[in-house]
Amino acid sequence: MKGDTSEQDPSGDADAEGVLELSPASVRLATTRDAKALTATYTGRDGSEEEVTMSCAWSSDDEEIALVVDGLAHGLDVGSALVTCAYKGLSADATVTVDELAVPERGDLVLNEVLADVPVSTDVNGDGSGDAVEDEFVEIVNAGEATVDLGGATLWDSDNDIARHTFSSGNALRPGSAIVVFGGGSASRVKGANCSAEVANADDGSLDYGLALSNDGDSITLKAASGSTLATHSWTSNDPADASMVLDPEIDGSRTTAHDDAYGDPYSPCTLGDGRAFPGAADRL
């Protein structure tokens, strides 16, 4: 789609005159895992052409649906958005349409923080009552470049008789965003930018299982709706007491460390260990 300001700019500034075009003018992404290139071309009034894709100031009229980073159109949710390249006082638009949320694959998601050993007399989930089971939590972060649908995904501990939590359909997790699952109680007061919180929903009749994480050694596994393993973390009785285990470095680390050793505080659900917000899609794409 073209933009031309030669008649709108009475200054006669040559740099502000010409035609800007985006190609293609319409992009369709089958799933949020897809990304397609847009090319921006500037044609000066002398007829010379220049590709300016990397010089554009890119924007989107709906950043919940689509973003353009370095000329690549990324879908973040189902729907359509108008993306714009601004260059030399000109602008050109393209429509990005996303058909489906992607199914998570191994490597997309990480167990960024796990609290199995809840410090005594602490109310981690902020519901007004400290509880050794209800205040356990698992923090899952999307470390990939695609928004994924957690619907049907499950959390298991080493006793695989029953899934400890099943995510609801349409639960979209964007790149750089997190979701925290607590063992029980209420998670309504746990908030953070690019993060949400909920409570484990496993039950067998009237018996609530929570996350059932053992202080003396256990494992927590995240499985896709298909049953394939997406991520897992195991620990022993030698792991930290009264503190969570957190990836080092967070999101992209290959090992864990005691949260209190790394950050001074025993845990940090829905924020990074130093209190900063999770980065979100724009900083991960």
Describe the structure.
By secondary structure, the protein is mainly β. It has two domains: 2-100, Immunoglobulin-like, CATH 2.60.40.1080; 109-283, Lamin Tail domain (Immunoglobulin-like, Sandwich), CATH 2.60.40. The chain is built from one helix and 25 strands. It has one helix at 259-263, and strands at residues 2-4, 19-23, 26-31, 35-37, 39-43, 49-51, 57-60, 66-69, 72-75, 79-87, 90-100, 109-115, 137-142, 148-149, 154-157, 165-166, 172-173, 178-182, 195-199, 203-204, 207-208, 217-223, 229-236, 245-248, 255-258. Strand 10 (79-87) and strand 11 form a beta hairpin. The longest helix is centred in the C-terminal third of the chain and has 5 residues, at 259-263.
Descriptive tags:
1 helix; six-stranded mixed β-sheet; mainly beta; Immunoglobulin-like; four-stranded antiparallel β-sheet; 41% strand; 25 strands
Q: Assign the structural class, choosing from mainly alpha, mainly beta, alpha/beta, alpha+beta, or little secondary structure.
A: mainly beta
- Spatially, the strands of the biggest sheet line up as 19-18-13-12-24-25
Annotated CATH topology of the largest domain: Immunoglobulin-like
CATH class label of the largest domain:
Mainly Beta
Structure in a nutshell:
With 285 residues, the chain is mainly beta. The protein has 1 helix and 25 strands.
Write the layout of secondary structure elements.
Elements: E1 2-4, E2 19-23, E3 26-31, E4 35-37, E5 39-43, E6 49-51, E7 57-60, E8 66-69, E9 72-75, E10 79-87, E11 90-100, E12 109-115, E13 137-142, E14 148-149, E15 154-157, E16 165-166, E17 172-173, E18 178-182, E19 195-199, E20 203-204, E21 207-208, E22 217-223, E23 229-236, E24 245-248, E25 255-258, H1 259-263
Parallel strand pairs: 3-11, 18-19
Antiparallel strand pairs: 1-2, 2-5, 4-9, 5-6, 7-10, 8-9, 10-11, 12-13, 12-24, 13-18, 14-17, 15-16, 15-22, 20-21, 22-23, 24-25
